[in-house]
């Protein structure tokens, strides 16, 4: 009796970081790296070979948003992560409603309007700019010019980074110009609206419905067990300076105590 033929199984590759670029152009090389930003923001990649096809080893990845949320226990990062995923879902819905093709079908599957990378970065930039403008306050350096220079550098870096990622989608021929512009704009509107709803209004009006909901999120038993917190409600810089001062005080005490003990022993 002849052995049965093994069933043919259809298989597909999950290439999240598949980017094709012109290997004769340095600008294309740089933009190919920048265009991976949404993946790198959501996934910390252990190693990334610089070859013509960029691929990440899945065994060396871990979610960056999850790492920030667990490490800091800040509600802000949980909100930002959730908003980023909601924005991506909104992009998926828009693409399947509009069903506009990409300019080059051979470079990727799926619809092209709006560009998901551009929308991702529009959300990311707007959320951060609003947070640094409306809630976060850096500890003054004591020199006004240095404080201004720090702020200018920060905002310029965020906006230039986000705009470069969006531009890379056009330059690498993955999207048409209007798909990139609309994607970035939708991301900015989504990020702005979302930040106002989850951060600005609840913290400015704690007795509002949104404010009471935020309080309930922070005080429920599950959040208490997880040690979820809102550092910016107590400290302007979320507690970075206060924690450093406390560490320095205890560290100096331990260090000086060890020196005294050594001196007595001698």
Beta-strand share of residues: under 5%
Order of helices and strands: HHEEHHHHHHHH
As laid out across the biggest beta sheet, the strand order is 1-2
- Output the structural class: mainly alpha
Number of strands: 2
Largest sheet: 2 strands, antiparallel
Percent helix range? 55-70%
Return the average pLDDT rounded to an integer.
Answer: 81
Q: List unreliable stretches of 5+ residues.
A: 44-62
Radius of gyration over all CA atoms, rounded: 24 Å
Shape: globular
Please count the helical segments: 10
Q: What's the N-to-C terminus distance?
A: 90 Å
Structure description:
The chain is mainly α. The protein has 10 helices and 2 strands, in the order ααββαααααααα. It has helices at about 25-35, 35-40, 65-70, 75-100, 115-135, 145-170, 175-205, 210-220, 220-225, 240-265; strands at about 45, 60-65. A two-stranded antiparallel sheet has the order 1-2. The longest helix has 28 residues, at about 145-170. It is globular. Residues about 45-60 have low confidence and may be disordered.
Q: In terms of topology, how is this protein built?
A:
Layout (H helix, E strand, L loop, with lengths): L25 H9 L2 H6 E3 L15 E3 H9 L2 H24 L17 H19 L9 H28 L5 H28 L4 H11 L1 H6 L13 H26 L1
Antiparallel strand pairs: 1-2
Helix pairs in contact: 1-6, 3-4, 4-5, 4-7, 5-6, 5-7, 6-7, 7-8
